[in-house]
């Protein structure tokens, strides 16, 4: 059974880099059928797709965040990482990782992790 | 970006009611629409994809319809477990975008 689990610091200072990891179990992130996405949810902006990664290193990012986002994979640990730099208070949100199969709906989600941006 | 809107934003209903939520896209997304249910403190859960296809394990009282720019999610005979917030999402083109949600409460 596929499981996704987000982890990382719950508090990040303004202007610093938010770094999160999604650990995937029950399947390999190199499965050619799957994409691995990051979505965030804040009270002010609802659900926002951040970007997605295909295992061969192909990525798609939301243009609104593209200049600050990097999504990468570590196949040795079966993890997908998110880095968001130069964070501001508006980046405070619950961050989810989720699986989709190409241009498709998100059919498996992690439980989410709250990240607060504050000094 | 494709903008998604939902109506109503809040819906008060009772157990046994038939409930309909509408989702509209700012341009045609053909049938590339998903519906999710989210309960407080939990991740969204996929209910319907490709506008009308029920995800495995989702009760048959949920159904979806529509294409192009207008879609509906219907819950026949609302159950206590169905009180939640529902979101639509388009995946016709990047960036994927979500609707603002419809909260179904008592």
Quick overview:
Chain A is mostly beta strands and 119 residues long. Helix content of chain A is 0%, strand content 55%.
Written account of the structure:
The complex is a heterodimer of chains A (119) and B (106). With 119 residues, chain A is mainly beta. Chain A is 0% helix and 55% strand. Chain A contains no helices and 11 strands. In chain A, strands 2, 4, 5, 6, 9, 10 and 11 form a 7-stranded mixed β-sheet that branches. A 4-stranded antiparallel β-sheet of chain A has the order 1-3-8-7, with no helix packed on it. In chain A, β4 (35-42) and β5 (46-54) form a beta hairpin. Chain A is globular and about 40 Å long. Chain B starts with a strand and ends with a strand. In chain B, the strands form 2 sheets. In chain B, strands 2, 4, 5, 6, 9, 10 and 11 form a 7-stranded mixed β-sheet that branches. In chain B, strands 1-3-8-7 form a 4-stranded antiparallel β-sheet, with no helix packed on it. Chain B is an all-beta fold and 106 residues long. Chain B is globular, with a radius of gyration of 13 Å. In chain B, 0% of the residues lie in helices and 48% in strands. Chain B is built from no helices and 11 strands. Chain A binds chain B through residues 37, 46-49, 60, 62-64, 96, 98, 100, 103-107, 109-112, and chain B through 1, 32, 34, 36, 42-46, 49, 55, 87, 89, 91-101.
Write the layout of secondary structure elements.
The complex is a heterodimer of chains A (119) and B (106).
Chain A: E1 3-7, E2 11-12, E3 18-25, E4 35-42, E5 46-54, E6 58-61, E7 69-74, E8 79-84, E9 93-100, E10 106-109, E11 113-117
Parallel strand pairs in A: 2-11
Antiparallel strand pairs in A: 1-3, 3-8, 4-5, 4-9, 5-6, 7-8, 9-10, 9-11
Chain B: E1 4-7, E2 10-12, E3 19-25, E4 33-38, E5 45-49, E6 53-54, E7 62-67, E8 70-75, E9 85-90, E10 97-98, E11 102-105
Parallel strand pairs in B: 2-11
Antiparallel strand pairs in B: 1-3, 3-8, 4-5, 4-9, 5-6, 7-8, 9-10, 9-11
């Amino acid at each position: 059974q596929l499981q996704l689990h987000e982890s990382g610091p719950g508090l990040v200072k303004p202007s610093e880099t938010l770094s999160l990891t999604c650990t995937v179990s029950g399947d390999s992130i190199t499965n050619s059928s799957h994409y691995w996405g990051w979505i965030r949810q804040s009270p002010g902006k609802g659900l926002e797709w951040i970007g997605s990664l295909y295992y061969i290193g192909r990525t798609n990012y939301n243009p609104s965040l593209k200049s600050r986002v990097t999504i990468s994979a570590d196949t040795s640990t079966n993890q997908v990482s998110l880095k968001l730099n130069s964070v501001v208070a508006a980046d405070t949100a619950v961050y989810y990782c989720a699986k989709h199969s190409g241009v498709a709906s998100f059919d498996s989600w992690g439980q989410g992790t709250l990240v607060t941006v504050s000094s | 970006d494709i903008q998604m809107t939902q109506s109503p934003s809040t819906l008060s209903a009772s157990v046994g009611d038939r409930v309909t939520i509408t989702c509209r896209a700012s341009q045609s997304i053909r049938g590339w629409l998903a519906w999710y249910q989210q309960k407080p403190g939990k991740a969204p859960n996929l209910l319907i994809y490709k506008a009308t296809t029920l995800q495995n394990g989702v009760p048959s009282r949920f159904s979806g319809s529509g294409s192009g720019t207008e879609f509906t999610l219907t819950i026949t005979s609302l159950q206590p477990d169905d009180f939640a917030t529902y979101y639509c999402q388009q995946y016709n083109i990047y960036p994927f975008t979500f609707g603002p949600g419809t909260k179904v409460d008592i």
